[in-house]
Amino acid sequence: MNDSNRILSGMRSTNPRLHLGNYEGALRNWVDLQNKGFKMYCMVADLHALTTMYEESAEASRNAREVAKDFVAGGIDPSRSSVFVQSHVPEHSELHLLLSMITPLGWLERVPTYKEKQEDLGSAEREPYGLLGYPVLQSADILLYKPYGVPVGRDQAPHLEIGNDIAARFNRLYGREVFQPYKYLIPEDELRAKVPGLDMRKMSKSYDNCIYLSDTEDQTAAKIKQAFTTPTKIRLTDPGQPEGCAVCQYLRLYSPDWERQWEEDRQGLRGCSQNKKELTEILNEYLRPIRERRALLDDAAIEEILCRGAEEARGFASKTLAEVKSAMGMF
């Protein structure tokens, strides 16, 4: 049966650092759930990273440690939540293999993730099996912990539907209610779930438009100085269009006085340099506790956290796997 307080979520280790979009779109929600009393299993998905980084597997592993540091710096408390690397819990791989045997091929080809990952890989490369099987591994990740729910953005929920389908098929095939449906935990504040990049495109390392949680105050200030603003606002008195200005979008997220700032921008009562100066001060103060926590984490500290987290995760995952194998008649 599902436990009402257990939640699994994760991020791939394709990049060594998390940016503001990762934090607001996912990590901040995990911290909120943790602080509401949920037992969080926070996974760094290094195996998933290999779908596009199989030639840089060592880099994906190194990245995993840095991503874990950002988890903890962002507010995940290892004394209350389990922080671990996916490949350190071999039950993920074994359940993936078992579930792959019962998952129809047509289901995988229809999953939105499949087409997205094909685009990530590029048309010049032959498609690996892992790309097609990605949703089965993702389903195994979730089902191992029999969670109450999975935090996900509204536009990402269709990517996870296959997990409940696979669970129902398993129960039906083997005549046991091993798995129960999990819920999609969609954040209520959708504005924070879609933080734009500094150029108003999607925040992404590939666009070089990110503010990273590990950036220094000076690095953050330099990036904000170059951020996209209203192109037609040349002089202070020119009217701005805050809806299309990256700096104004960040002010809306982080400034308690954003409505006045927006209105003054529209009326030509403030310039872009003033907006950037105020945003720099506000955002650096917002990120200060995250930076302070990260500064306390050296490599030895994060390894200890990851070892303990993997042990905790295996403690639950191994029980689920044993239940799965029993239902299948495998001893």
Give a structural overview.
The protein is mainly alpha-helical. The protein folds into 2 domains: 6-194 and 300-327, 3-Layer(aba) Sandwich (Rossmann fold), CATH 3.40.50.620; 215-292, Tyrosyl-Transfer RNA Synthetase (Orthogonal Bundle), CATH 1.10.240.10. The chain is built from 13 helices and 5 strands. The chain has helices spanning 20-35, 46-53, 57-73, 91-100, 105-110, 112-121, 129-143, 157-174, 217-225, 246-254, 258-266, 272-295, 299-327, and strands spanning 6-12, 39-45, 82-85, 149-151, 183-185. A 3-stranded parallel sheet has the order 1-2-3. A two-stranded parallel sheet has the order 4-5. Helix 8 (157-174) links the parallel strand 4 and strand 5. Helix 3 (57-73) packs across helix 12 (272-295), helix 4 packs parallel to helix 13 (299-327) and helix 7 crosses helix 8 (157-174). The longest helix has 29 residues, at 299-327.
Key attributes of the depicted protein:
13 helices, Rossmann fold, single chain, 2 domains, two-stranded parallel sheet, 331 residues
